[in-house]
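Tokens as discussed.
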């Protein structure tokens, strides 16, 4: 019980530190009864002791609750990260699909179909449900050709570059010399024998 005595001393010293006016009001109403004050202090100390014991009993449960909350939080963070990664993969696949669609639709009109998607914002052509807006792509490709006609395929009536004719020149008339060293040596020997 030395703990109770210390608490009693602390509680008794507390009223001395307060203002004189409340002390005077208490003393005027009822006289100080030391036995009754000691009983109230013992009762308060007993209640405090019981509360401390309950806190000690509940501390492991509170710790488990914090651990579960942290585990749940980390599980939620993990799931959020997985969702973010899945959404990024979906977006990448959608952009590839749109890029392929743009190339396919641009193949008829553009000199290089790969140039077409470089000038377009691919995200514009993906609907909320994930479908590709091919009509929107056709419209934007037409407008792109109006703004940048140099991307279009040349018209069929443009002059064509001449194709080489292999029958013309030295190879076409049979006077072609062989580059085989054996054939060259045989030709030299043949001429040397005929000339003698």
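Sequence:
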């Amino acid at each position: 019980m030395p703990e109770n005595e210390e608490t009693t001393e602390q509680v008794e010293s507390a009223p001395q530190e307060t203002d004189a006016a409340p002390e005077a009001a208490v003393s005027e109403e009822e006289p100080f009864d030391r036995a009754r004050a000691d009983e109230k202090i013992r009762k308060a100390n007993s209640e405090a002791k019981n509360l401390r014991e309950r806190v000690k009993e509940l501390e492991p449960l509170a710790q488990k609750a914090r651990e579960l909350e942290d585990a749940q939080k980390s599980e939620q963070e993990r799931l959020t990260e997985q969702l973010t990664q899945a959404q990024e993969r979906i977006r990448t696949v959608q952009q590839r699909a749109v890029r392929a669609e743009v190339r396919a639709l641009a193949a008829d009109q553009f000199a290089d179909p790969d140039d077409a998607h470089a000038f377009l914002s691919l995200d514009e052509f993906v609907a909320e449900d994930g479908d590709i807006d091919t009509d929107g792509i056709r419209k934007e490709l037409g407008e792109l050709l109006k703004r940048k006609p140099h991307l279009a395929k040349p018209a069929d009536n443009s002059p064509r570059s001449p194709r080489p004719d292999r029958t013309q020149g030295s190879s076409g008339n049979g006077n072609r010399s062989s580059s085989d060293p054996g054939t060259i040596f045989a030709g030299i020997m043949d001429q040397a024998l005929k000339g003698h």
